[in-house]
Amino acid sequence: LSGLDPAQPYFQGTPTEVRLDKSDADFVDIIHTDSAPTIPNLGFGMSPAIGHIDFYPNGGKQMPGCGKNPVSQIVDIDGIWEGTRDFVACNHLRSYKYYSDSIIYPDGFLGYPCASYDLFQSGNCFPCPKEGCPNMGHYADKFKDKIKQDFLKLYLNTGEARDFPLWRYKVTVTLSGRSKVKGYVNVALYGSGGNTKQYQITKGTLKPDNTYTAYIDAEVNVGEITKVKFLWNNNWINPTLPKLGAATITVEAGQNR
């Protein structure tokens, strides 16, 4: 039984007989997309974990792409009717859009077990544990026999628009060069499953021999990595023509460590 942002008003905090609960089926998985408190943010969905596994994409409160102004949203790709409805309840309705996308991406929407969204964002709950991460949506039940605790909270990020799934990587870059400069470092990944755009790993003072780490949510499952593209820029013309390189770049995929 999959709960798509089950309702908060009149249901949150009520007895289990009244609301959706994990006693309702052999396996109950929940997608929380609009769990901000009803007042002042007018959230439609409930926040507590109530299933065997509970997914909180983007933290479960504010979905990317839902903060757009009403005009751009209403004339969005989905047409006037869907755009109008989405503007009123965009976060709430993301749950079924993620679910329908999950049918097409059996390897997508990995939920990372974590105590909070902030810890997930900072990389504390990366990579997936030994038993793997469940997939939010249609294929969540593949994880049914691996659940070891009463409530399992899972976090992940999604894209702003279709296609929604993102794949998480840890990218670590050690710089080489002679002198420190100010600027930024970008890395793009190339692999058997496709290529990513450039992601910023760090910006500010770049010091040779220093190591910089970032967690990126890529729009494609790169598969086996065949090459990486490294780019640095110091944003302005420097008469000393500093040179920087990457001594090493390490990439770790969340799903298979």
TrEMBL record:
GO terms for cellular component: extracellular space; neuron projection; zymogen granule membrane. PANTHER family: LIPASE (PTHR11610), PANCREATIC LIPASE-RELATED PROTEIN 2 (PTHR11610:SF165). It is a peripheral membrane protein. Keywords: Cell projection, Cytoplasmic vesicle, Disulfide bond, Hydrolase, Lipid degradation, Lipid metabolism, Secreted. InterPro entries: AB_hydrolase_fold, Lipase, PLAT/LH2_dom, PLAT/LH2_dom_sf, TAG_lipase. The keyword Lipid metabolism applies. Its EC number is 3.1.1.26. It is found in: Cell projection, Neuron projection; Secreted; Zymogen granule membrane. Residues 167-257 form the PLAT domain. The lineage of its organism: Eukaryota, Metazoa, Chordata, Craniata, Vertebrata. GO terms for biological process: lipid catabolic process. This is Pancreatic lipase-related protein 2. It catalyses: a 1,2-diacyl-sn-glycero-3-phosphocholine + H2O = a monoacyl-sn-glycero-3-phosphocholine + a fatty acid + H(+); (9Z-octadecenoyl)-glycerol + H2O = glycerol + (9Z)-octadecenoate + H(+); long chain 1,2-diacyl-3-O-[alpha-D-galactosyl-(1->6)-beta-D-galactosyl]-sn-glycerol + H2O = long chain acyl-3-O-[alpha-D-galactosyl-(1->6)-beta-D-galactosyl]-sn-glycerol + a fatty acid + H(+); a 1,2-diacyl-3-O-(beta-D-galactosyl)-sn-glycerol + 2 H2O = 3-beta-D-galactosyl-sn-glycerol + 2 a fatty acid + 2 H(+). It holds the Pfam family Lipase. GO terms for molecular function: galactolipase activity; lipoprotein lipase activity. The keyword Secreted applies. Belongs to the AB hydrolase superfamily. Lipase family. Pathway: Glycolipid metabolism; Glycerolipid metabolism; triacylglycerol degradation. It is an enzyme of class 3 (hydrolase).
